[in-house]
Amino acid sequence: METFGDPAVWLPWTFAALMGLSILIYVILDGFDLGVGLLMPLADDAEKDLLVASIGPFWDANETWLVLAIGLLLVAFPPAHGIILTALYFPVFVMLVGLILRGVSFEFRAKAPIAQKPRWNLAFFLGSLLAAMSQGFMLGMYVMGLTWTVSHVAFALLTAVFLTVGYSFIGAAWLIAKTGGDLQARAVGWARGGIWGLIFGIGGISLATPFVSPRIFDKWFSLPEFFYLSPMPLLSLALVGYLWWQIRHLPRPDDRRAWGPFAAAMALFTLAFGGMAYSFYPYVVPEQITIYDAAAAPESLSIILIGTLFVLPAILGYTALSYYIFRGKATELRYD
Amino acid sequence: MAPDDQIFGNYLIVSKARVGLQTQSEGEPLDTLILSRIQFGANISFHILFPTITIALGWALLFFRLRFNATGERKWMDVYVFWVKIFALSFAMGVVSGITMSFQFGTNWPGFMETVGNVAGPLLAYEVMTAFFLEAVFLGIMLFGASRVKPWVHTLATFLVAFGTTMSAFWILVLNSWMHTPQGYELRDGIVHATDWFAIIFNPSMPYRLVHMLLASGLTVAFLVAGISALRLLWGDRAESVKTTLRFGIITGAALIPLQILAGDFHGLNTLEHQPAKVAAMEGNWETGPNIPLLLFAVPDGDARQNNFEIGVPSGASIILKHKPSGVVPGLNDFVAEDGTALHPPVAPVFYSFRIMVGTGMAMLVLSWGGLYLLRRYGAGDMPTVPLVGFAAMSFSGWIATLAGWYTTEIGRQPWLVQGVLSTKDAVSDVPAGMVMGTLIGYLAIYAALTIAYISVITYLARKASRGEPLSTRRYPRSGEAEVAVIPGE
Ligand code: HDD
Ligand code: HEM
Ligand code: HEM
């Protein structure tokens, strides 16, 4: 089992890593554009257009990371895929409704008769809210081992709220970077509110996870590990401190460090995600099924892996290209 | 491991991996089965509407863009700017409904991936990696990049998006065709393992299905473009760009429909070879034999196992399927088990939907060739009112034919999910029926609302353009030309 020369070991491991990477990229990228959607009601009419313009060219590609993540779960760990998704049947439905509402509102709000625009703006906000809440809820349920008991649901409802606020924080951080003037100043204000979601969300999950199972507890609190792992929480604290300080001093006159909060938020999401991955490894269904038991046949996995090695760098490359083309402060979106 | 069963509360199916897939057939799961089928059918039907438009519209936009690059005529860019909006709207609808699709496998059909995941998985993964990202990333540049990048980059982005939509059609149709005509695999412990990827990808029905679907998309777009242009002419819009697109729609439609009829015929012959029961249902033929008529209309009765009312062309089916009147055509009664259970698909839905598809195809033939004649005679600007109304009425006819065609294909495969390998009832999840019912109602309500919103926004955009509001005030440099300064006052 421990030999990494054995394809039945390194293939599942590689795919778990790839899946983790896509989930992380999804949470960061769609996190900021869902977050921008959550901030819609706070903006006035002209600002709303800018909010949407700041994410317009990106949102579709951002959501594709979710499709990739769920696709990898489905192709690499078929039994786990069925178990997780049937256990989360209803929250998945809510998320899908949210994503549908949001995705179409992008288009409809700009194309429908002007009188209907407020309605689509509302749909855009509600869609973002449903998607963010249900994702937070699923995160909480997953941490609790996918069991529907009252206390687990209560915990999941809390994570739902915190992830939503967390998304609105990273959304505000994006706006600080991508807008200027009054809107930027207001985005800084929104970030001041949102940071609490980040603190409570990450803090809550970090505190709760070790108590879900003795196995996870031991992974963190047995002796040499504890010291190796301590940079993680310390770094997180430092990042929170940095964010705290930044959002009291932004925006600066020459727009220096406008990207600071977004970069720090990305780092924080990454750390939190890494911690969770460490806790749950090697399980894909918490405490139930390991990635090695759930893996698809090695010959099928290797055929995907070959493709991935060629395609993933290309995807990352042209995604970067698109962020480069639409760099700078957001301006009105035009089809011509 | 019984204690673990509680762990996931009501919904759990861990047992499935353990107990094996064949466990659920009696009792409550049946309701879940029916509801899950309706839900899946509703979701995929809604989804397919939009790819059908975007696959071909992407290429049409590339054509418009290239015409502009070549001629520099303003009208081509007007055409582009108008239709790219409809593309964007359709694309968004396709994406959100597609995301729903990718979750459906897990939420409603866990047995599908557990049994055939080793084949379906890589195909879906390649779709995401080679198609979805390509489309999604370059879509942003295609839609909003015209003023930010060089003309050739914008042209390239348009090409890549069109190419991406076609790639996703390719991969998903490989999978779907494999479900109809599986090969290149072996069963180990009831699980499908891939043995020959070439055989899996180039399975017998794939080329036919791919060609037929791509042509279907082309026809859907041809009639949509012709229909919306006709509508604008009827509203008195005499812009060059509108006449151009009417011409474009009619000529494309007229060129593609004979090809589609031919491809459909070949497709049917291929199905006869691999899925004779489906063809028997399409023809509404109960007894195997020679001189089987081509039924133009009939009322098949599945319980009495006969047709109640028939109008047909004598020996027609034998001639089409076997190319001679004495050709022997399979009948449904050959596909009944010893104990009397039918091993063939339900007849009526397959029979009717096949006729709806072919009927729509014939209507397209008449209208587009008639339109071609009128185009030569009167020109696009002076087309008489009646044919214009005809085109406007047929704007969404491609949708009807496409849905009818898919119902024929998919219902015709029942009771199998993967022909001969996995039956539909063995793949369904055991989510409680009430839950599936609730989500089904939710989806249906959203889909109905969105379809209405979609059609009304397209007509609204057409109406707005007809009122002469300028589509664009920008000046466009052609490929190769130096960037031209923006017109003053903008
Ligand atoms: C604009 C759309 C359109 C039009 C005008 C037609 N079809 Fe079609 N047809 C489709 C769109 C389509 C489709 C939606 O694309 C299907 C479903 C699955 C597939 O591969 O193509 C299909 C399936 C399909 C099948 C079932 C294949 C199977 O068994 O899996 C047959 C036999 C035909 N078609 C034959 C025809 C004939 C003889 C036509 C003559 C008029 C025709 N189609 C017109
Ligand atoms: C190409 C990808 C496709 C795949 C992988 C696929 C897969 C499936 C699956 C899993 C089922 C079983 C569920 C059921 O019986 O309802 C099914 C049935 C069905 N599908 Fe497809 N499908 C595809 C394309 C389509 C399209 C494009 C349409 C229609 C527009 C369609 C229409 C249907 C219908 C109506 C059923 C119901 C058949 C019945 O239950 O009697 N499918 N398909
Ligand atoms: C069960 C079957 C299917 C699944 C799971 C599925 C999944 C998806 C997903 C997830 C997307 C969104 C991609 C993005 O984020 O950009 C999508 C879009 C798309 N799908 Fe499907 N799909 C299915 C059936 C089909 C069929 C039958 C076709 C056509 C023959 C098709 C053609 C497309 C195309 C061209 C797109 C691009 C987006 C668009 O133009 O709307 N899909 N699909």
TrEMBL record, chain A:
The keyword Secreted does not apply. The chain crosses the membrane at residues 12-29, 83-101, 122-143, 155-177, 189-208, 228-247, 259-281, 301-326. Belongs to the cytochrome ubiquinol oxidase subunit 2 family. This is Cytochrome bd ubiquinol oxidase subunit II. It holds the Pfam family Cyt_bd_oxida_II. The keyword Metal-binding does not apply. It is found in: Cell membrane. PANTHER family: BLR3729 PROTEIN, CYTOCHROME BD2 SUBUNIT II. Keywords: Cell membrane, Membrane, Transmembrane, Transmembrane helix. GO terms for molecular function: electron transfer activity; oxidoreductase activity, acting on diphenols and related substances as donors, oxygen as acceptor.
TrEMBL record, chain B:
It is a multi-pass membrane protein. GO terms for molecular function: electron transfer activity; heme binding; metal ion binding; oxidoreductase activity, acting on diphenols and related substances as donors, oxygen as acceptor. It holds the Pfam family Cyt_bd_oxida_I. Coiled coil: none annotated. Its main location: membrane. One of its GO terms (cellular component) is plasma membrane. It is found in: Cell inner membrane; Cell membrane. InterPro entries: Cyt-d_ubiquinol_oxidase_su_1. The chain crosses the membrane at residues 44-68, 80-103, 123-144, 156-179, 210-234, 246-263, 352-374, 386-407, 440-462. GO terms for biological process: aerobic electron transport chain. Keywords: Cell membrane, Electron transport, Heme, Iron, Membrane, Metal-binding, Transmembrane, Transmembrane helix, Transport. Belongs to the cytochrome ubiquinol oxidase subunit 1 family. This is Cytochrome ubiquinol oxidase subunit I. It comes from Roseobacter cerasinus. The lineage of its organism: Bacteria, Pseudomonadati, Pseudomonadota, Alphaproteobacteria, Rhodobacterales.
